[in-house]
């Protein structure tokens, strides 16, 4: 064979070998890597995130963002991303690159004082490779960054140092994936993992779980509880470590879905139990979850509560090291006593105002055998006092009896080492529970809270929170960060205190936290909830739901209105307003001013439309400072009007009453001194009403109630007195009576078959709800939760008097309750200025709450589920008129602001 053929053959073999080698390397690079296999085993948390663009868009439309946006770290992150984006090429390329990606972030403890993060980012396409290459080249050229690289076990690691802040970030590439971290130690551990082919996934126990496939889930969150104690050790003092290590022994790991709503962050999923010996799980395995029934006795000042749902609370005693103190003569009695508890068990820490002082602590245990347990407890008291030669301590606090057992660490001996720290033990039975404390003052204040109903089950905010948590659990941790703030200051690691103080507003803003585990088959259903108490729970805020249909401008600022009236001819909706020049205007449905009338005085009360007078035609009735006016349909004063009252009279409002519903109207006026004047249609004062003199101004317009053949004028005064008057202005039997507190709103009720069966409800300024009948008997009293001395309560009738709600305003916070005191809405506003609350029912689920903040001049609308209607700001300082248009399924809102009257259509 000629040599040249041998040469050609050799070249072909070489090319084939090079081709095969190149193809195998290309295939290897193209093969996708499960990013979870790159994560080191010492990860504490791993977050698999996706839908970043949707998540950021949703986040910025929630009230959660109002708090998070103030965090310095997040502001810097946003600034840094913007800087990198500007360097990388076209504006927005970085966010388009990151937006749709599914990436991992893992957290690791890197020293005794710090932790760090690793980011795992897949590079999927040629376009993405090109973008990353361009970005790196531009970063290397930029004078802000210093570039260097080195090789570790055959893999090139690149470092970028920011010369402005000395921050360093390192990264390497592996099979089309970027691995990025500030810690070179973490990157080297991942490279060693790759080189040793130790690519087992840390989430092996959750192999087929991916919550990202579900709607509105933005991340899978993996938690390794075995690595949790070293992580928490970074933040808390060593004295908390034994409890943290024990409680972390409930589960090995969790895989949870992460969701976001307007006022909360929450994670739900499943956890695998810890299978090591002597752990928390081993001590409570096989126990059924229990309801959180003791909430009716947990005081609102509770800061931290650990709640256990167990058939046998004595199982918790296994968290004890046998010692000589457990072999005392009392041991047998303690062992017997432990078996008489079962169901619920809790350890609580109360709010403290001094970070240097240990917080008050209480243990609460449900009685499985109440009579036996109390008998044995009293026996132990007698035995201990006989041995010590002391007199038994006993104190009566209302209907409760506090006693003391001079036995140190009794709760620990009953329930395990978590319940340590009781040098002496006072106890009290409250229904089916026993409360233990090491200070009698703690039990006294706790009983006072229970008697005053300052407890979780009576707190509107806490009930709303508990409704969103699991109702049956084996273990729950509840934290109120506002109450726990001084505790955090006490127990936080000294080097982390500065960071804690810097983020005080954020921590106390998300003041409701829960971590819960419930046994389900061979796993624990797990949920974590972080909630803003003062924000509304909404899914999404709607956009572009408002449309300004009509806008009418006046020459002067509008000071009264809008008052809705109907066109007498075609029944179309019209509005009456008054401007600062004291001119009254009527605006028709087309937005045209049809008539104007100069009054010379400002309106007092509302404009009322009624068929008034002998001709039976519709008139407009209203009062000014000391006159009663009546205008016809064209805006002209009717003959004999206005009616004049003495100049000394300052009218509050006009009320039109019809004694027999026959169109024979009476005009009832109340003034700022509490005087009532009643006129007939001819303008004559009626006998007995010349005037009726009451002790104080009326808190709301007087109400006419017809009970059988009797007419009752019901008047609620600001000083807390209630009057029921007959047609001659004389009080009915039983009236007046006082409710014992000031009132700033009227009463709501309905007529019954007789005066005794006619019941009405009112609420005092301080929040006491009073129910009374027209016989003058108070039939019910109920004190609403009053969070502080600034809280003020008002009864808000529905616009058509179909129902009512109760509004509480307290330092900028508005809370709405239904007649059964259930929370309807709670919202924290920007200022503490007075709020105007209105309530509208249009049938079915068409419920609207309107809240107007008079200081910033903004009106907000909420539906029956407390979700905001629309997201555009409505500038306004006065009550609005709201209607529902069924054919278009839209609300129509009329409001005045400045010199304008506007009609706004709002999509439901």
Describe this entry's structure for a reader.
Helices cover 20% and strands 37% of the residues. Residues 1-30 and 539-544 have low confidence and may be disordered. Among the domains are: 30-222, no CATH class; 223-531, no CATH class. The protein starts with a helix and ends with a strand. The chain is of the alpha+beta class and 908 residues long. The strands form 10 sheets. The protein has a 20-stranded antiparallel sheet, sandwiched between helices. Strands 23-54-53-52 form a 4-stranded antiparallel sheet, with no helix packed on it. Strands 24-25-26-27 form a 4-stranded antiparallel sheet, with no helix packed on it. It contains 18 helices and 54 strands. 34% of the residues are buried. This is PQQ-like beta-propeller repeat protein. It comes from Adhaeribacter soli.
Concise structural overview:
Keywords: Membrane, Transmembrane, Transmembrane helix. With 908 residues, the protein is α+β, with helices and mostly antiparallel strands.
